[in-house]
Amino acid sequence: MKKFVFMACAILLSFNPVSSQALKNIDEIAPFSEGLAAVRQGDQWGFINEEGIMVINFRSDIYWNKDADTSKNDISGVRFPMFKEGRCWITKTVEEDVPVFGFIDAQGKVVLEPQLLNVYPFKDGYTTAVLFEKAMKGKNEFNLNIYEFKFHDVMLDTSGEILEFFNRRYNIQMTKKRYERPTIGAKRLSDGLIAVHTQDQGWEIRKITLNN
Questions:
Q1: How would you classify residue 98: left for phi > 0, otherwise alpha for psi between -120 and 50, otherwise beta?
Q2: What does the alpha-carbon distance between residue 156 and residue 5 come to, in Å, rounded to a whole number?
Q3: 13 SS3 class
């Protein structure tokens, strides 16, 4: 009988939902957003839920900037990794260490591979951004690949789909010494209005139709 009671207690303890295991060696903890908080070890971030369980493992591509200008609304203002409408920014570098941005979902799955030079936070399922594209034009006389860089102001949704292409952008230098993060030339004003900036004519207000 005593043996049975001991085994029963052991089984119950094995299913105890309260775990004594703790995350250790954490360098920084971000505020909770949408039920998740980013935690940093070195240059890698992961996410825990409100029970302290690691739901997204540490990874090096999650975007943050300890010197962020938090007065800005674009990517320059992102101090900590946070989820906004189920999406968190990730980054990589292209060309000569120019950063581009994409996003993951709350399970850590990449929804949009990094390809944006600048982007606003999502609002009601949409955002605007500056899209970077690298298109192959052919080969030169030495049989080396020739590429063309294209830039557009765009609107996209949380699925990563580009919904609207606005103005083509020029004069963005994709070299480390000359690169400056471009401002975003499209701003969503409301469900049916967007402001688009052109270099010579300033801002223009346009009506748009979004399929909800």
A1: beta
A2: 60
A3: helix
CA 90, 75, 118, 44: dihedral to nearest 10 degrees? -20
Polymer length of the chain: 212
CA 80 to chain centre: 11
Per residue in 178-211, pLDDT (tens digit) is: 999 999 999 999 888 999 998 888 999 999 887 7
Residue 208 corresponds to which tokens in the numbers above? Answer: 């748009």
Is 212 a member of any domain? no
In sequence order, the β-bridge partners of residue 91 are: 101
Structural domain harbouring 24: 2-207
Q: What is the DSSP letter of 192?
A: S
Question: What is the SS3 assignment for 111?
Answer: strand
Could you tell me the pTM of the whole model? 0.84
